[in-house]
Hints:
The protein is mainly α. The protein has one domain. 77% of the residues lie in helices and 0% in strands.
Amino acid sequence: MLTIAGSTLASAQQQTPAERPHHVQLTADDIAAFTDARLAALKTALKLTPAQEKNWPAVEQALRDNGKARIARRDARRAAGPETDPIARLSSHADGLTARADALRRLAEAEKPLYQSLDDAQKRRFVVAMRFAEGRHHMAEQRMHREGAPDRG
């Protein structure tokens, strides 16, 4: 048993970062499929009434827009390469924070009518389901930021 564990560890240490499963690059189709799945899960978890359904399209669109903006920021960071000037990096980071703050305001505005129409059970599910709907890739971006690759907008 120890031999198997040791050989697995040695094998994992020999892999380059690109070969490791957690470094898989998602295609646009992959991202679209996961976005659709997360939105469907959120809507299913909420069990919306017909009256509440009228507020859903704005929430869905805001979540999709935020996802597209996040992908655009990621692609722009990759295309720009590492920023070596600390002042430019700080300014770029501030621009990114402003853009994300604006996107979060639009999301809050879209979610407010829906959330206000939910009963207590739906509100509990909303909190949990929104974490899922936002996607795990967002946590990866936060980890990259902590490790020194700031989100520059």
